[in-house]
Amino acid sequence: LGCGTGRDCYLLSRLVGESGKVIGVDMTEAQLVVARQHCDWHAQQYGYAQSNVTFLEGQIEDLQALGIADNSIDVVVSNCVINLSPDKKRVLAEIFRVLKPGGELYFSDVYSDRRIPAALKTDPVLLGECLAGALYWEDFRRTLLDLGCPDVRVVKESPITLDDEEVAEKIGMVNFRSVTVRAFKVALEDRCEDYGQVACYKGSILNHPHAFDLDDHHHFETGRPLRVCGNTADMLSASRYAGHFDVWGEKTVHFGLFDCAPPNKSLSLESGASCC
Ligand SMILES: C[S@@+](CC[C@H](N)C(=O)[O-])C[C@H]1O[C@@H](n2cnc3c(N)ncnc32)[C@H](O)[C@@H]1O
């Protein structure tokens, strides 16, 4: 979503293989003109008979208008775009509409540790810097909760420093972070519960022979069983990762809350109720 000139679409084109498909959506025609110029070159480089990338011009708030059907997409990827949307809830609702059951939203964006003051939300400099529309983490979390996704996982995060004096003077009271998250279209609980389950990574994901990081606090070494909460067990067994993990244990016996927390409890951007 918000593919711009298509760089990430072409990376994904390689990852999904010749039989996979990638759709890039952007509202800016000029960006798509550049993006489309590189379809054939990438297909040739990857040895594909024809490009597996399609670019669609439109709003990420209305994927229906672009003909993207319910339950039709495996993974939605986006980089630094949702902060720019005036209607983030609609974008997120559209994402969960188009994802297949078990599908994944994997995206990075700019998050703030408080709501941006109204007077600064329309500031053109701050908008251009992707700061004015930054998602306040707790509002983002609540929006996902409303959409039926109570457990969003942080994959990685890093602070954003405001090097420009004009920008820092305007909005320096807010702390910003760049955060990459995973959210699954899987029925999950709002807290991590312990059912005595165990997961073991098979080492079978391409380029991850030794270990796989589901998020910032689930590092699965190949062949090494790890105790997991019910939500993690469900994420691993109902998503694209299913074939790459053995997950043992049913949810027949409950042992209470799962006792663990993410390692980086940074500022107020901690994962809150979605931790495990
Ligand atoms: C900061 S750029 C990021 C481009 C690309 N994802 C990347 O990482 O290089 C934001 C892109 O999102 C697009 N965009 C912003 N809001 C949008 C919306 N509501 N609907 C569709 N595209 C949007 C812009 O046209 C622009 O190409």
Note the main attributes of this structure.
single chain, alpha/beta, Rossmann fold, Ribosomal Protein L9, domain 1, 2 domains, 24% helix, binds S-adenosylmethionine
Query: What's the number of helices?
Result: 8
Class based on secondary structure composition and strand pairing: alpha/beta
Query: How many extended strands?
Result: 12
Q: Estimate the global geometry from the Cα principal axes.
A: globular
Between the first and last Cα atoms, what is the distance in angstroms? 29 Å
Uncertain runs with pLDDT below 50, 5 residues or more?
264-276
Radius of gyration: 20 Å
CATH superfamily descriptor of the largest domain: Vaccinia Virus protein VP39
Instruction: Please give the largest β-sheet.
Output: 5 strands, mixed
Q: How many domains make up the 3D coordinates?
A: 2
